[in-house]
Fold this protein.
Amino acid sequence: MMLAAGMFVAVSCDDDDENMVTVPEADRTFAISAADGGMFEVKAGEMAVAKGDSSATGMVMGSDSMSIKSFGQMMITDHTKANNELKGIADPKDVDLPTTLSSAKQMKLDSLNAVSGAAFSTMYARMMVTSHQETIALFEKESSTGQDAELKSWATQKLPTLKHHLEMAEMMYDEMK
C-alpha cells in the first residue's frame, strides 16, 4: 500500500511538470523588460506629479492643454494598469517580474530627481519621448515575433496606447524647446 501511495505521488508530480507552462526565453525577457519599463514610467510619473509644472505646456488634448503633472498622472494610471495586467499574465507562467528598477532605469530616475523647475519639465518630457520609443520597439518586436500567445496578444493590445503616449510626449517636448 505504501508503494502504491508513493507511485501516486510520483505520478502526481510528473503530471504537474507536464502541466507547467514553459515560456520561451525571448518572451520571458520581453516580460521582464516590459515590467522594468512600466515601473520606470510609474515612478517618473510620480515624480512629475510631485515636481512638475502644473501650468499647461500648450499641448492640446481635445480642447484642453496638458501639464507635466497631468501627463505624469496619466503615466501612473495607464502604466500601473498595464503592469498589473502583465503580472496577471506572468505569475501563472512562473515568470518572475522585477519588483525594483534595473540599474539603468534607476540611474535615469536619479538624474531626473536631481533637477527641478523648467529643467525638470524638459528632462522629463525628453525622457518620456525616449522611453516610449524604446518601449514601442520592444512591444512591436513581441507583437510580431513573440511565441507565447498571451504575451504576444497583450503586447499588440498595448501598442495603440503606447503610441498615443509617445505622440503626446513629443508634442509636450516640442512645446518646451
User: Anything to note?
Assistant: The chain has one domain: 24-176.
